[in-house]
Design a protein that fits this description.
Layout (H helix, E strand, L loop, with lengths): L6 H5 L3 E6 L2 E7 L13 H17 L6 E12 L7 E10 L5 E10 L5 E15 L2
Antiparallel strand pairs: 1-2, 2-4, 3-6, 4-5, 5-6
Amino acid sequence: MSFAQQGLMRVVEARIAEVEPGRCVIEAPFRKTLTQQHGYLHAGVLTMLADNACGYAALTLLPPGQEVLTAELKVNFLRPARGTLAIARAEVLKPGRTLTVARAEVWMRQEDGSETLCAAMQATLVPAAAV
């Protein structure tokens, strides 16, 4: 799978936790090396996790031999991202041959197991030939 080829996913120690048609969940542990100046997980990390989750959710609905690229995305940061684990849960809203629209939510798991919603994304993805 192309996920293993993404060096940045290795840097943040992300893993695909779940994948099924039209859905993908990616998790990454909170690490101080990924924070911004206030000690929260950096917005770039949240965006990257949500974007990848949307992309792999879309990819599950494409024929073999295709990949996806993000054409557009919009992120709302809702709360500071602190906790033990970032969880990006994505689902396809509208599949298509030329454009697919997906959404993701990024939750932070707390020490007690509860989760806090920190970011929401909507993304438009386009199919591309596999490289």
